[in-house]
Amino acid sequence: MLGLQAELALIEDLAITYTVQVLDSAGLRRAGELCALYAALELGLADASMVVLAEQRGTLALATVDTGTSGLSFHCKGGAFRLVPR
Q1: Which helix (H) or strand (E) covers residue 81, if one does?
Q2: Does the pLDDT at position 1 exceed 70?
Q3: 30-79 pLDDT tens trace
Q4: Parallel, antiparallel, or unpaired: how do β-strands 82-84 and 61-63 relate?
Q5: d(CA 12, CA 7)
Q6: Among 47, 53, 84, which Cα is nearest to 69's?
Q7: Exposure of 56 by Cβ count < 10 A (0-12 exposed, 13-18 middle, 19+ buried)?
Q8: Residues sharing a CB contact under 8 Å with residue 25, sequence separation 6 or more, in sequence order
Q9: Which residues contact 51 (CB under 8 A, 6 or more apart)?
Q10: How far apart are CA 77 and CA 65, in angstroms?
Q11: In sequence order, what are the beta bridge partners of 83?
Q12: Which residues, in sequence order, are bridge partners of residue 84?
């Protein structure tokens, strides 16, 4: 983790600059498929949700404060995600 103050600053920046996205029921099902498909990575719902949102938006750039996010080192259609800040 980046530390509490850095995380709070990032949250404030996100609140000012971005709209935080949510998954609909189809997106949640896709996240479940990814969790099952990549079970060895222990992807988890949070990381799988980010993958689904990235797929839906056609991006490889993901904002995260979780520096231990190992499951996001791949993109389901090839390539790798770019995690920011890093």
Answers
A1: none
A2: no
A3: 999 999 998 988 888 988 998 899 889 888 887 776 666 555 666 666 66
A4: parallel
A5: 9
A6: 47
A7: middle
A8: none
A9: 31, 34, 43, 72, 75, 76, 81
A10: 24
A11: 62
A12: 63
If you count them, how many residues does the chain have?
Answer: 86
Residue 71 CB partners (closer than 8 Å, separation 6+): 38, 41, 42, 43, 44, 47, 48
59 and 75 in contact (C-beta within 8 Å)? no
Whole-number Cα distances in Å, 49 to 3, 45, 62, 72, 86: 23, 6, 11, 10, 20
Q: Kindly state the tokens that stand for 43.
A: 């992807």
Q: What is the pLDDT of residue 59?
A: 86
The Cα–Cα gap between 41 and 2 comes to: 22
d(CA 22, CA 73): 21
- Identify the residue whose tokens are 């080192």: 73
